[in-house]
């Protein structure tokens, strides 16, 4: 309730390749599975069974675990078999029309399932949760009568009540957005025992109001978790053997913990040179650099990543960049979402920077962190984008040469500023052609960037067997690039005992022998540790 001091928890997620495959599939509009978990402490034999499906970003993966923790505490069991379920909940995405269409299609399948359900069993209850629920609200209930429950991202605590209303045969909805909900007291639920990687949510919502983006309308205003609770959680994950944590938020580097009274009058940091915001500078609070510093000190053998930052929030004093350069366990990898290479389009998008300012930041980052791996997001075919604008984006891809890229055709969303003020005037076939050209350019440049690593030794965190061959292992290097190598007996650099095979969670030094736009291949040299590898470089 108001004034309560809450302590947030998040969750360790499925290990490495499984999680990344799951997230890529979810982003493409395919659901993630509902893993089979033991009944929670609150559930009893004969408890109602819930089946959860996740669509969209990592934030939704984290939200799925929040939902499960709440329902588990309220006597539900979880199943991975759709046919066993009494309740089916879809955690949805609204960022593009394709993601929403995947949900409407899924509902048609569930309608058939509901109709076939034996009369002896209680009726199947279906719920739509998350961003699509927030965007469309009660319209979902009117359009699709089989939906019983609609709950927005800030209403998950209300799910037990909403489901109880649905039990009585009525439809129920709660789509209220909150200024302070962070689910801070939700206890963690480990989705996969022995996972090597985990996401830790550090904030919710976004205040940037980019003209194309639905997030501020579906996830609400920006609010941050208390640092103390984040540190407690990362420590817990370290104790469980997790070897890589990604700090997660819509805009992580504008993080601002206001829970400690003595820091509430701290001056707002400056923005990157040539960058601006649509909101006034925010005074007070402990900032992202303080959080990153503290998190990196918890476990020298745990890698730290973060996503997604906004380019404007790398202030000129470069404290975050300095930390990345100095700390051996903060990955030398940055996500710098550009969205377009045209200053004219960036202005229409309300991104708060020009092409020149963005490139200056890229050079500053590369000067500050030698060998940094860069990734980015791009939208093609935004309102009013000309062929010249498009070619500016192609040339930015060539000039920066990203290691990883996420590229999409523009999809107009209701409620956004673009929907109210701009025309979605680039034809679909033109968007498709431009997207194909961007993808081809990105792959060409990424292949060049990765080929430069051939002959070098890379430290790889093993995630598990390769998808394509049981005789090979798969992991990621510091730059978050996938590395595949043979599963062989390896010496241990730290111990002079018998050789052994690498296990998920081990660090292996791999000499790169070949590269493509998405993958490195190599030969394993030895097992080692993060600290030992850093000391030898």
Automatic annotation (TrEMBL):
A Gene Ontology molecular function term of the record: tRNA-2-methylthio-N(6)-dimethylallyladenosine(37) synthase activity
Record's signal peptide: none
Stored PROSITE patterns: MTTASE_N, MTTASE_RADICAL, RADICAL_SAM, TRAM
Any one GO biological process: regulation of protein metabolic process
Listed InterPro entries: Elp3/MiaA/NifB-like_rSAM, Methylthiotransferase, Methylthiotransferase_CS, Methylthiotransferase_N, Methylthiotransferase_N_sf, MiaB_methiolase, rSAM, rSAM_horseshoe
Keyword Iron-sulfur included in the entry's annotation: yes
MTTase N-terminal domain location: 48-168
Catalysed transformations (reactions): N(6)-dimethylallyladenosine(37) in tRNA + (sulfur carrier)-SH + AH2 + 2 S-adenosyl-L-methionine = 2-methylsulfanyl-N(6)-dimethylallyladenosine(37) in tRNA + (sulfur carrier)-H + 5'-deoxyadenosine + L-methionine + A + S-adenosyl-L-homocysteine + 2 H(+)
Residue ranges annotated for the Radical SAM core domain, each copy included: 192-448
Gene3D superfamilies in alphabetical order: Methylthiotransferase, N-terminal domain (3.40.50.12160), tm_1862 like domain (3.80.30.20)
GO cellular component, one term: cytosol
Source organism superkingdom: Eukaryota
Annotated TRAM domain residues: 451-526
Required cofactor names: [4Fe-4S] cluster
Metal-binding among keywords: yes
Xref: HAMAP family: tRNA_metthiotr_MiaB
Name the record gives this protein: Mitochondrial tRNA methylthiotransferase CDK5RAP1
Organism in which the protein naturally occurs: Hypocryptadius cinnamomeus
